[in-house]
Amino acid sequence: MSLQARTIRIVSVSLYAALLSLLGGCSTWMGSNYQDPDVQLLNVEVIEAKLLEQQFRLNFRFTNPNDRSLPIRGINYSLQLNELKLADAEYERFFIVPAHGSKIVQVALHTNLWRHMRDLIKLLEKPDQPIRYQLQGVIKTGLMQGRRVHLLRNGEIIPGDIIPE
């Protein structure tokens, strides 16, 4: 093997090893004192509401308690009202949350509530009764391979407080 070929091979193996160490996972990259980000659903905006399709914008705040910036590769999530699953969706855009900082991310949500209309009408018949909601998801962190952070938020909304008279 020539000197040039050996040099190229050594450089290739070194680069490969360096890449593997970077992609070894978010917890290795972040350090042993890594803390999961805090994720809050700030609000839900109605963009368009047609009979067969509705478009919403979910506004999330990601807060990073760590000493290093946190790359996020995407979010898989589902949304339920009572036991009624309204949406399963994916947000596949890359963004970075700065160290000890936060970032607000707007996520589009498309639904077809027509198939749930009867159940939704029953929920709204008593506007003073609370409706339980559940937002469940998985946040994919890291550069290529990384840690998966599970998200679960439960709460209640009172339809009469948000539906105009």
Automatic annotation (TrEMBL):
Organism annotation: Serpens gallinarum
Entries under InterPro entries matching the protein: LEA_2, WHy-dom
Coiled coil feature spans: none
Lineage, opening ranks: Bacteria, Pseudomonadati, Pseudomonadota, Gammaproteobacteria, Pseudomonadales
UniProt superkingdom: Bacteria
Water stress and hypersensitive response domain mapped to chain residues: 39-158
Name of this protein: LEA type 2 family protein
